Amino acid sequence: LDGESLDEVELQSLLAAEGGLVLLKGKWVEVDREKLNEALKHWKRVERETREGGISFFEGMRLLAGVPIDRDAAAGLPEVAREWTGITLDESLAQTLAELRDPAAPTKARAPGLRAELRPYQQTGVYWLRLVTRLGLGACLADDMGLGKTVQVIALLLYRKRERGAKKSVPPGLLVVPASLIANWKAELSRFAPELTFFIAHPSEMPSGISGNAAAIDGHDLVITTYNMLTRLEWLRKQPWDLAILDEAQAIKNSGTRQTRAVKELRSTARIALTGPPVENRLADLWSLFDFLNPGLLGGARSFDKLTRRLDAAGANAYGPLRTLVRPDLLRRLKTDKRVIADLPDKTEMPAYCPLSKRQAALYEHSVRELAAKLKEAEGIQRRGLVLSHLMRLKQICNHPSHALGDGRYAPKESGKFGRLAELCQELAERQEKALIFTQFREITEPIAEFLAVIFARPGLVLHGGTSVVKRRGLVDAFQREDGPPFFVLSLKAGGTGLNLTAASHVVHFDRWWNPAVENQATDRAFRIGQRRNVMVHKFICRGTVEEKIDEMMTAKSAIAADVLQGGGEMLLTEMNNDQLLKVLALDVDKALEG
User: Fold this and answer.
1) Hey, what's the torsion of the CAs at 171, 177, 181, 182, to 10 degrees?
2) Full-prediction pTM beyond 0.70?
3) How confident is the model at residue 281 (pLDDT cuts 50, 70, 90)?
4) SS3 (DSSP) at 463
5) How far apart are CA 292 and CA 272, in angstroms?
């Protein structure tokens, strides 16, 4: 009571009181026998249920945050007693949680052997990673792209190497990355921490004759592999690791995929996830990520789904307890926050509205009418496939008629986007500025590059999923040279992560992706540390088409994703009824055509 324990005699005297004011330990206290009895029954029940092993750490964290999941739901405080009973921390745990939630590096000591000067926020990040991993918890480092997550992890690895000394019993760390980032990590490790030894478990890097096994990694500080190789090499999943680190951890946001299941089999002392926004579309993304980092913290998938439905129905600020629960294990800083980094140039995003040519408009109208007719007969998964295929075709029509028809002509005058791209890049060519052009479609990368080679009077570069991992590093190095090619056309999935392309000060999204986080990652190829100029982001949108509707939806989604835990999920186009869907897809001719 008010921080003081009550013995059995004092407790019984309270229960025997008729109510009102009672003198206890020299204080007059108000007693409500009904509430007191209910609270005591509740805690007796909790005591019985936890007599075997007490409550777990994660159950305690959920109770503290007020997030009832699984058995916590039964252990939650009775409604009538919540106003005057609760759960408190002891001093040491309170101090630890405060440090996790609001870390501040106590010194400016450089990581042992690190050949880089860490910025203050990076020092804080390394301090936080050391604290979380020493506790054996999972850490999600969700800094904005370009703020140096890689160098922070390398600093942590150097600290871990120094702390284990000559102990041979401590296993190496494991780093899991997309294949396109192997070369990037190799370069960064060699640059910042040459004393760290690493083994790459991937066919592109293994010496001839080495298939990779537990014996091959002896004496190394780190093993690097890919998500795909993790599903193929059982010894990687069975081997104990010091740290299990995931780069581009959004790769495990879908809990049912094979690679996600493989990742969650890993055995390690602590786990780290490097990602951008931990919630891209759905709160289920957050669950899958934390099911890897701290299995059990957010309960089971079904329980978490029920919880989020309840929170979503509760209205404003309902996600506060969930935010409190994950905050100790999640650190996110933004480039746009001047308290984090004050010397990064500005980024300006602007829509670049494009008209449709008459041929585009005719094809678009025909495709919508064709979909409307087919929808009358389609149901279930067949309907969903039908909608998705037509959405893809409409986006291709907005790019260029030849993109949808596959005739290979790509006459510039037949596409409003090609015309808008010419206007923009003619100006860039005159100012001798470089540009990145992103598209989600591999097949149109070469036609765009051929068109821009005429505008710039010089050839540019192209990167897509078919570009080999070895060749990618050469393309990046060439573009980054001052006298390098003036433009780089990249497919969004292949070029949207892991590349440093700060030679460009303009980013063009030729067509729009469904997910704002994916677009932002692509933009951050240019808008990152090392960029000395302001970055202009041009988002091409065909007026009066589905692209304009997608832009409106993405704007709404970005507002949701801005707060990591406030996403109820947008209504997918495939789930709209026929009338709603056709209204979204319908062509507004007055907006779409020139003049």
Assistant:
1) 40
2) no
3) low
4) strand
5) 9
